């Protein structure tokens, strides 16, 4: 698809950085770096959702959460305002880290600006590719992260977060939700929330 040497170098650099994530998730009995797994899954979903994804979109998919663990949530107040400050700081951090790598491997300023805009959601939801990236991110959240929060969140927070996630997704992405490999408990919760929204 995109076999240029600099593209491959960028992907390898992104993966190498995310492979240093000290957090681990178990896959087939093997502990693997959490952010590396997440980035690769989002990258795969982008290719499923977009028949011909652009190179900047693929680069953004692989780097939009680059080294996320380096700015932990508890660095900001545990309030709604603090959460948004954290997310905004993360987006700028991810974009900066990705830009450094892209510049190192020889990408031009225009491409780097495109990747940065996708990572920071500068043109979301007007940009169709930004919609694809958000859809992919939401789908991977549901299939790989939801199970970690079920016992940590109360019903009100779970309903609110899942409702926000579902409303952000395009109709195309929503059609994939029912086929996600969720556990029985996760599937029941998702179905309840979607039903409560009237599948809108």
What does this structure look like?
With 200 residues, the protein is mainly α. It has a single domain (5-196), classed as Hypothetical protein af1432. Helices cover 66% and strands 4% of the residues. The chain has nine helices and two strands, in the order H-E-E-H-H-H-H-H-H-H-H. Strands 1-2 form a two-stranded antiparallel sheet. Helix 2 crosses helix 6, helix 3 (55-63) packs across helix 5 and helix 6 runs antiparallel to helix 7 (155-168).
Jot down its keywords.
single chain; 200 residues; mainly alpha; Hypothetical protein af1432; two-stranded antiparallel ribbon; 9 helices; 2 strands; globular
Number of helical elements: 9
Order of helical and strand elements: HEEHHHHHHHH
Q: Give the total of domains.
A: 1
State the low-pLDDT regions, or none: none
Question: So, CATH architecture?
Answer: Orthogonal Bundle
Query: Major sheet: size, sense and barrel closure?
Result: 2 strands, antiparallel
Q: Estimate the strand proportion.
A: under 5%
The CATH class assignment is: Mainly Alpha
Give a topology summary:
Blueprint lengths: L4 H14 L5 E4 L2 E4 H16 L5 H9 L16 H25 L4 H12 L7 H22 L5 H14 L2 H7 L6 H13 L4
Antiparallel strand pairs: 1-2
Helix pairs in contact: 1-2, 1-3, 2-3, 2-6, 3-5, 4-5, 6-7, 7-9
